[in-house]
Amino acid sequence: MDNSHQNSDNFVKLNLPTISEQPDYLFNFNELRFSGELNCAVELIDKNILLGRSEKKAIISPENEWTYKKLYQTSNQIAHFLKDNFGVKKGNRVLLRSSNTPMAVACWLAIIKVGGIVVSTMPMLRAPELKTIIDKAEINFILCDERLKGEVAKTNFIQTNSICFFDAITKVPLKGDLQTLAQSKPVKFSNVITMHDDPALIAFTSGTTGAPKGTVHFHRDVMAMCICAGEGLLKLTENDLFVGSPPMAFTFGLGMLVAFPLHVGGTTILLEKTSAVDLMAAIEKYKATICATAPTAYKKMLKDYDHYDLSSLKKAVSSGEHLPIYIFEEWHKKNGGKLINAFGSTEMTHMFISAIDESIRPGAIGKAIDGYEVCILDLNDLPIGKNEIGRLAVRGPTGCKYLDDVRQKDYVVNGWNITGDLCSMDQDGYVYFTSRCDDMIISSGYNISGPEVEDALYTNQKISECAVIGVPNEERGFVVKAYIVLKDGNIPSEALVIEFQNYIKKIIAPYKYPRKIEFVEALPKTQTGKIQRNKLKELSH
Q1: How many CB atoms lie within 10 A of CB 168?
Q2: Apex 404 CA angle, 403 and 408, nearest 5
Q3: What is the mean pLDDT of the chain?
Q4: What is the pLDDT of residue 167?
Q5: How many CA atoms, within 13 angstroms, populate the side-chain half-sphere of residue 501?
Q6: Mean pLDDT in residue range 62-72
Q7: Which of 67, 166, 364, 497 is the residue whose CA sits 20 to 30 A from 27?
């Protein structure tokens, strides 16, 4: 380990919430009780070399395959570049702009090895969104896929000598690119000493509820998600092959497609094109055993399911959005396995409620996974009875640590992380999702769950996608409005509006039917596939 970086950059540490503003942490078993030195990159890549996995495939992409040895050596060479050429010191923020590629993973590991803090960004972010992140995190350096450099240039990042581009698919050598500059560097690197509670990454929320927030995660947080979700819940092994759609900048993707595979010594299949067809083709070609994507993708996979051999798939993990029960049921009919509903948040690093195999109860999210506790609170922040709807609260080995953000006090209350979800919990500890707190529609005194209406609409064969919100109404306070994307062959009409309204009245309580329906060609979504209901609400005002 290298302890030469005595002049650490303490910007992030100085802008963390105070201890009293942070949640209570639980370290319920020995594996979570980290202390002293810890570097998550060492845990994820260096240890695989020590365990004799040098020649094993770590990453498969359509263009090439990387062994653990290649990933280890390349990340070390990039770490040397960051230290020698850029002068990166412990605590510096390095923005990483790339899709899911082997080179991006090598860069991620290298930043951690040199003591830096990774700030990964979604590939499709535009300059104003990038500038918000650059300014908020006070970015020091940028590593960027050559194909994505246009938007970086528009941010007017003043430290132009602190940007380095790389060819993510390594097809055409670029003059002065990261690979060229790093290839002469040594393949071994003395990792900078970091502590278990040093910041390792800043993950920005997807912005479904306003300006993105920078969530800080320590080295121990990265390892906690591997231990609790990867080992404890999913029972992953070195024989598993992972595939999925979420970007590395989304902590669901970082876990399922980078950290979890490397932690167990498995193999990850990284795709830049991740449509439902692309995922199924990859599962068939590489015999993937674990798939991770959003409910809407599983819905699309069901349409062409019979055209592909998905028999190798052992576990299918769904996250990023509410999982409608009809998608769960249809997948079970086709696949024989049960979709794993992974409920988590960027603030908590990864999932904290779920269930697998025979523990799954259709309609429920699941139970708190080992290492976490959940409860349901009323508006006075007091626990409420079983099967009553209230605000979901969680605590465990990870927790919300916003970077210099007054909204910290909204997310952490009395030591609990308040997720912003309305849920109930039964006598066995199973949690049932009702809606986001701001998705509950109160109309003429009735509480109406937007996702419940969406689930009902999805059972209609003419509907491809839908989103339900509450819109102001002088007489009722709010009324239910549905935005609907029709399947091909269906034409919007007033008659179809009435047909859908009558349809809903027959399958859920009539007062819940959408009094307003608007047909749209597509729903606004974040880069992670979440429907942006806040944008729909803006359109409705």
Answers
A1: 25
A2: 80
A3: 92
A4: 84
A5: 14
A6: 96
A7: 364
Q: Does residue 38 surpass a pLDDT of 50?
A: yes
What total number of domains does the chain contain?
A: 2
Q: What is the CATH number of the domain that holds 463?
A: 3.30.300.30
Rounded CA gap, 512 and 505, in Å? 8
**DSSP structure string for 426-439:** -TTS-EEEEEEGGG
Name the strand (E) or helix (H) holding 58. Answer: strand 57-60
Last residue of a domain, one of 384, 409, 425: 425
Residue 160 has pLDDT above 70, yes or no: no
CB 42 within 8 A of CB 194: no
The answer to whether residues 76 and 189 touch, using CB atoms and an 8 Å cutoff, is yes
Residue 503: domain span: 450-540
Q: What is the mean pLDDT of the segment spanning 165-171?
A: 76
Q: What is the predicted pLDDT for the residue at 437? A: 80
- What residue ranges in 361-457 does DSSP mark as E strands? 367-368, 373-377, 390-395, 412-413, 416-425, 431-436, 440-443, 446-449
Place of tokens 């990964």: 120
Q: Which amino acid is at 87?
A: G
**Stretch 152-160: mean pLDDT:** 82
Between 247 and 212, the higher pLDDT residue: 247
Mean local confidence (pLDDT), 60-77: 97
Percent of the chain with pLDDT over 90: 77
Q: Which of 176-185, 261-270, 331-340 has the lowest mean pLDDT?
A: 176-185
Average pLDDT over residues 528-541: 80
Do residues 467 and 454 touch, judged by C-beta distance below 8 A? yes
Q: CA-to-CA distance for 309 and 281, rounded, in angstroms?
A: 8
Q: What is the pLDDT of residue 208?
A: 46
Nearest to 323 by CA among 287, 291, 363, 352: 363
pLDDT tens per residue across span 226-235: 999 999 999 9
Interatomic CA distance for residues 249 and 317, integer angstroms: 18
Q: Would the pLDDT of 172 be above 60?
A: no
533 three-class SS: helix
Quick check: is 395 in a domain?
yes
In sequence order, which residues have a C-beta less than 8 Å from that of residue 13 and are 6 or more positions away? 91, 199
> In this structure, are 165 and 274 located in the same domain?
yes
Longest dimension (CA), the chain: 73
Residues 6 or more apart from 489 whose CB is under 8 A from it?
none
Nearest to 223 by CA among 188, 181, 195, 190: 195
| Cβ partners under 8 Å of residue 93, min gap 6 | 11, 12, 116, 117, 119, 137, 138, 139, 140, 141, 202
Q: Are 305 and 172 part of one and the same domain?
A: yes
Position 313 in a domain: yes
Are 394 and 294 in a shared domain? Answer: yes
Mean pLDDT of 140-164: 88
What is the pairing mode between strands 373-377 and 390-395?
antiparallel
| Residues 480 and 442: beta-carbon distance below 8 Å | no
